[in-house]
Amino acid sequence: MKQFISVDDVQSIHSLVTQALAYKANPLKDAGLGNGKKIGLLFLNPSLRTRVSTQVAAKNLGLETIVFNIDKEGWVLEFEEGAVMNGSTVEHIKDAAPALGSYFDILCLRSFPSLQSKEDDYAETIIQQFIKYAGVPVVSLESATLHPLQSLTDIVTISEVLKSSQTNATKKPKVVLTWAPHIKALPQCVANSFAEWMNAWGEAEFVITHPEGYELDEKFSKGATILHQQSEALKDADFIYVKNWSAYNDYGSMPAVNGDWMLTNERLQQTNNAKVMHCLPVRRNVELSDDILDGENSIVTQQAGNRVWAAQAVIATILNSNS
Ligand code: CP
Predict the structure, then answer these.
(1) Which domains are present in the chain?
(2) Tell me: the pLDDT tens digits for 175-215?
(3) What is the atom index within ligand 1 of the atom nearest the CA of 110?
């Protein structure tokens, strides 16, 4: 694996999931793999889980990690080709990325979308320029449109729950991605990515439910059953993934919504005692109710914990393919 930007970079989801769960069982089994190597975690936006879990994963593999909050501690970067830099930007990506690439064996980057320009965001301008100029493998820590480390974790978590339960193995689990309310416009990354990975995985009956106006880019959602009635979608669900996103078509807007989309324990009654997932951070009693998050159906902490093993599997795969 030369980079980890989307599911398209992955040869076998099944192998990565198996590897992640093997690391969970024995975190230090490849403790020497990264000896003498360095990984850079570059942040243009905030993070709790991604930042810390990737550091723990790298440590388990023997890598040295340097974290750099470029947005706060670095020069303001320019990404436009041919720019006359007589304004606020101080350093061009063409100069910064090769320098960073010379310090590290793997570069990881978090870079959220602007939600202003669909064209720029969906071209993945920032991470693509890091890939172009860094000269070392690049791992997405969430980019403008996708969050692949989260999606791998999500499939690891679903697989782990299925393995530990006594479900009928002949029937695919029903996994529902449901839109949830929020107070501000959020990126489509987690939803896009989850849809992309679920469709590629193919081991579940996959349903997306959202209010009208919140359609995702078909490039990612195609293959899923899409319903506008949450109650219809939740029927007999085994897993419910709760996430807010802003509109893709009327880009970055928050179209008015009819009805209440926040998941409650009452709504779980129509499911197959579904496990509830969320990538976190979550706004309690806006996106998801306390009764769900503090109840026995929530697997959000297990899911967040699994971020380590997913990151470890990805970093190890990159080290093994580029040694
Ligand atoms: N889920 C996730 O990416 O969390 P952070 O934004 O805290 O890293």
Answers:
(1) 7-146+307-321 (3.40.50.1370), 150-305 (3.40.50.1370)
(2) 999 999 999 999 999 999 999 999 999 999 999 999 999 99
(3) 8
